[in-house]
Amino acid sequence: MSAVLAAADSVNGNLGSIAYGLAAIGPGIGVGIIFGQGVQAMARQPEMVNVIRQNMLLGFALTEALALIGFVVPFVHK
Amino acid sequence: MVRPAMSEEEHRPGPESDPSDDHQSFANAAWSIPSYVLSGMAVYGGIGWLLDHWLGTSALFPIGILVGLALALYLVYHRYGR
Amino acid sequence: MSAPHLLAAGGDEFEAPGLHIFDWGPLFSGGPSWLDWLTKPVLIVILAALALIVFAWRAFGNAQLVPRGVQNVGEVAYLFVRDQVARPMIGKDGDKWMGFLFTTFFFILFLNLSGVVPVLQLPATSHIAFPIVFAAFVYVTMLFLSIKHQGFIGYFKNMMFPPGLPKPLYVILAPIELLSNIILRPFTHSVRLFANMFAGHLLLAFFSTVAWWFLVEKLTPAGAGVGVVGFLMTIIMTGFEIFVQSLQAFIFTLLAASYIGGALHPEH
User: Fold this and answer.
1) Residues C128-161: pLDDT tens digits?
2) Domain count, chain C
3) Is it the case that residue B46 has pLDDT exceeding 80?
4) Does C224 lie at the interface with B, CB-CB under 8 angstroms?
5) For residue A10, what are the domain limits?
6) What is the C-alpha to C-alpha distance for residues B24 and C85, in angstroms, rounded to an integer?
7) Contact at 8 Å (CB) between B62 and C164?
8) Alpha carbons C169 and C176: distance in angstroms, whole number
9) Nearest CA to A57 among B69, C174, C252, B79?
10) Quick one: which of A76, A29, A78, A20 has its CA closest to B69?
11) To probe the interface with C, which of B39, B44, B76, B77 has the most C CB atoms within 10 Å?
12) Whole-angstrom Cα distance, residue B42 to residue C201?
């Protein structure tokens, strides 16, 4: 923790933007996995396209929500 | 040398001539989900922030954001997930 | 315009390029004051507009039944926009919107590609004013068409009250729909283009500055490796930027077509 606080002193710029950069890593990987696997699933079973699309969209919404939480946390926690 | 001219292209029953509703609604959904989630957080987080401002509390802003998030996800589920 | 400009504040320490690389004063700084509006982004916009006019004129101005020369390129481009954007997104009446969509796509594409054209090297869309104007144009068109085709009441009813929800939930969910469709839509539409171009230009400037600094300004045996990496990354990122710039122009046009299509056919 003290290392983080020490780092906060030596970082010039907004710490919130750095936090958002870190928070966007996970959702970025997640969105990539969701759409990659979704396209793969559609290619394997074209007759299931509608079900796959719906589940893709739901998974995308949940993952995107994480990224947006990372976006607003710097505003909440000043 | 054979090349696709515009007039030939007009008569070709392309892949788009079958019902393109799916394509359109999927693209619409994928592009509008972030803005739904963001606006849910903005509306209810904003209400929470105002209540915090008036009541002198500090917990309602994050609670409002989470509530708005849940409602926006429910809206997305209702619109596109079924 | 190139590395010396980026390193204007340079001392002995390496300094990463910041937001000042987007600040362009009047092009002729000593010139007359009535030329002050002519900054570099404005010049790029004028050049892109001229390039688009010349391209369209050469391709379609004197169209032959058997195309040759530029007309080949123009027809392939037209077919691309029509089959990938207009028809899937708007449907049967998509062809009527081809003039608008074709112009939008190629104007934004030229503005974006000016980020990798030597000497210009600034995507004009990295100034948010230009994406905002494009998005506002699409937004006003969308509002006008929606109200014309669905009626004023019908538009808001279709937008804010999706059928099939329990009644009390409408009170809670309608503000989300309203904010998302009316306010955030043009915002995200323009910011998506702006942010990609902005970040891409910053990235290119950073890597080229690294290469310039460590290979030319302060060449040391230890720093040369960093400079070589920066040089290679500049080349790689230039290729990547060309891809991103084309993709963002395409996505902007796709979204514009999707909004227009949604305004014309509310059931989707």
Assistant:
1) 999 999 999 999 999 999 999 988 888 888 888 8
2) 1
3) yes
4) no
5) 2-76
6) 10
7) no
8) 11
9) B79
10) A76
11) B39
12) 30
Residue C32 domain-assigned? yes
CATH of the domain at A53: 1.20.20.10
Q: Which of B22, B61, B81 sits opposite A57 (nearest CB)?
A: B81
pLDDT (0 to 100) of residue B21: 59
Instruction: Specify which residues C26 forms β-bridges with.
Output: C39
Chain C adjacent subunits, 3+ CB pairs under 8 A: B
For residue A2, which amino acid is it?
S
Question: Is C39 contained in some domain?
Answer: yes
Number of structural domains in chain A? 1
Q: Which residues, at least 6 apart from C52, have a Cβ–Cβ distance to it below 8 Å?
A: C103, C106, C107, C110
The reply to whether residue B30 touches residue A61, judged by beta carbons under 8 angstroms, is no
A-chain CB neighbours of B61 within 8 Å are 76
Prediction pTM value: 0.83
List of chain B residues whose C-beta atoms are within 8 Å of the C-beta of residue C65: 5
Residue C244 placed within a domain? yes
Compute the count of residue pairs across chains A and B with CB atoms less than 8 Å apart.
Answer: 47
- pLDDT for the residue C13: 73
Tokens representing residue C152 in the block? 């004023």
- Tell me, yes or no, whether C243 lies in a domain: yes
Q: Which residue bears the tokens 């955030």?
A: C184
- For residue C65, give its domain range: 28-129+193-264
DSSP-derived 3-state class of residue B1:
coil
> What mean pLDDT value characterizes chain A?
85
> How close C187 comes to chain B (CA, Å)?
9
